[in-house]
Amino acid sequence: MTAQLHKEIQLANRPEGMPTNDDFNFVEKEIPTPAENEVLLKTLYLSVDPYMRGRMRDVKSYIPPFELNQALTGGLLAEVVESRSDLFEKGDIVSSNLSWAEYNVANASKLQKIDPTAASITAHLSVLGLTGLTAYFGLLDIANPQAGETIVVSGAAGAVGSIVGQIAKIKETRVVGIAGSDDKIDYLINELGFDAAVNYKKDSFKEDLINALPDGVDVYFDNVGGDISDAVISQLNKHARISLCGAISSYNNEEGDLGPRMQGQFIRTSTMMKGFTLGDYAKELPTGVAALTQWLQEGKLKYDETIVEGFENTPEAFLGLFKGTNLGKQLVKVADPEFAKL
């Protein structure tokens, strides 16, 4: 019998600067066979996230780097097509962190079953998944926003930033977003209810930002870093809090990131700045999921997705993150389910 094949995406090179398609390699392999307590999964959607750029470097971090000539890994939604576990049956939809591949075998204990009636299944890769939970804990635990305060969010039209801003509005704060196009500015204000938003690509950005902050900045949720963050930090109020989620402006900068020295200003304003990753909150994730689900069902949260069709287009979807082409969560649709009734 001829072996059935599928494709996986491997890291071919460690990029210098902006990654290119040449840094990814599509490799054909036999579809694996599940052992006892394992399931065979057909990938439906891949999550494409900025943090993955850091894992392409061979440096020590909070998560091990990708290995050359091995499959990249990330969050995905998949359908169970064969099960050797009592925990799952054919047609179940699950989420996990697995290889960028058309098929995966995984131990059943590493999988989370998705209830397709609670929300769109893709919501579990965005507002109810990694990005929504990152927004929830990064804002509420670190920044502790209070009613009437001013919150600034960079990367505000992205998967994390868009949820941060909406949670901040639920907490009755004034929210100012920063994004990279007039369409995104309109989206933030008229669709998500931000109080103001400014376009960092305009020559008047710094002036526009100051005009949007008549009462200064109490909380800054930073997804971007670089010059944008320098501009926001110059407007900090006394006892400001900064939640450091990402620094996408420097992810492809091989020479390192330089900027103003902030220590003096932080002392003068008694500012607290703290970085975090979602792994810091592993034991508290169910609490976050419950809150986000409730707000979503109450209509207090909206979420958008940019979905690229086709497994072969995954590298392009990833590269688009650094060009600002996505609105909300960037996903790749790999396949439709065979057995699930959605």
Can you tag this structure with a few keywords?
342 residues; alpha/beta; 7-stranded mixed sheet; 6-stranded parallel sheet; 9 helices; 24% helix
Question: Structural class of the secondary elements?
Answer: alpha/beta
Uncertain runs: none
Number of strands: 15
Largest sheet: 7 strands, mixed
First-residue to last-residue Cα separation: 33 Å
Helix content: 10-25%
Strand content: 25-35%
Average pLDDT for all residues: 94
Number of helices: 9
- Name the shape in a single word: globular
Please, what is the oligomeric state? single chain
How would you spell out the order of helices and strands? Answer: EEEHEEEEHEHEHEHEHEHEHEHE
* CA gyration radius, whole angstroms: 21 Å
Helix and strand topology:
Blueprint (H helix, E strand, L loop, with lengths): L4 E7 L12 E7 L7 E10 L3 H4 L18 E11 L9 E7 L3 E5 L4 E2 L16 H14 L6 E5 L4 H12 L3 E6 L2 H9 L5 E4 L5 H7 L5 E6 L3 H8 L2 E9 L18 H7 L2 E4 L9 H13 L7 E5 L4 H7 L8 E5 L9
Parallel strand pairs: 8-9, 8-11, 9-10, 11-12, 12-13, 14-15
Antiparallel strand pairs: 1-2, 3-4, 3-6, 3-15, 4-5, 5-7
Helix pairs in contact: 2-3, 2-8
